[in-house]
Amino acid sequence: MTTLGHPAPNDVMTQLRIDTPLTQSLPEQIANQLSARIVSGAYAPGQRIMEQAVAAEFEVSRGPVREALRLLEKEGLVIILARRGAQVTNPTIEEVNEIFDIRAMLNGLRDRLIAESPQRDALLPLIEEDIRRLVQAAELPGNGDEYIETVTRLNRLLTQAAGNRRLQTILGSLAVQTVRYTRLGLSSADRRRQSVRHWQGLLQAIRDGDGDAAERIARQRVIDSRDAAVDLLRAQQAAAA
Known about the structure:
globular
């Protein structure tokens, strides 16, 4: 039987879920594992997820699997089609642009709130530590998994620190929907170095209490990630044509 215990602390999908409960229901545990596969590319866009096969793998009935897939549908990772079951979402480039544009605006609001908060000084050491890790991870070979994990943790920290529960919920959902494409957009060392510069600029804006600069930098960071991901998506589509 596949283990359904809690994922490791550095698991990207765990980090994306704001206020993850200490105990999760069986459907939530299954959803976590399936979502991690979608994010990693083990389940490709457009691929069907067969209820019966998942139930057999986890040695459960189809009921919890069906509930897990509904959770993933709410997060925008799968679509459930009549008589066809669940299928991994495959957004158009236009849809990817739209989701990232919304996230850019809300990240800007979040980081402005933090920069203008009287409590920002208490947050600075935590941000500084994660940015030091980003600088190191940006130069590591490979596709940037450690960088993505650190960015995810840092974004989660900032989202929680903003102190706006509705903003937390919306940004948490958008992060889950875009993490596949964020990973794609940060797959090159050059893009990771560009991203580090944005994070270093944000750190300075928070130190200075400069909400305007924090908002501008946050938006640009997300837009750059969007543009890089879209460029790679277009290249993949052209290669497949």
